[in-house]
Write a structure and sequence with these properties.
Helix content: under 10%
Shape: globular
Strand content: over 45%
Order of helices and strands: EEHEEEE
Strand order of the largest sheet: 1-2-3-6-5-4
Structural class: mainly beta
Number of helices: 1
């Protein structure tokens, strides 16, 4: 992968439940990292059809491994104002250089 394709800025955040002054539960986002990543939205290419296990996935992110930070499925990726729940995390080729994240876009709740 060339550096020219890693041109989307993403945030990796974790949602922390806290209570506000009135005692209501709210979730605060804690930003764990701001990185540049390769972003690929889901489309009907052969690459996506081979990922039938993750049929609900709507995006793929690939970025450099962050020393000291273990990306987990409980984290959320924020890219271009859209939030994505992480479905899977994989070390690309097992070298510890790049991380590939398959994610699903969050739908805004109506309420």
């Amino acid at each position: 992968m060339s550096y020219g394709k890693i041109n989307s800025f993403i945030e990796i955040v974790t949602a922390t439940p806290t209570k506000d002054a009135e005692g209501f539960a709210v979730t605060d986002d804690t930003v764990l990292a701001n990185v540049r990543a390769y972003f690929e939205p889901k489309n009907s290419t052969e690459k996506w059809s081979n990922r039938a296990v993750f049929a609900e996935a709507s995006a793929l992110f690939r970025f450099r491994a962050i020393p000291g930070l273990k990306i987990e499925t409980s984290h959320v990726v924020v890219c271009g104002g859209q939030r994505y729940n992480i479905l899977s995390v994989e070390d690309v080729r097992g070298r510890g250089m790049y991380i590939e994240v398959t994610a699903k876009a969050q739908k805004p709740s109506v309420g």
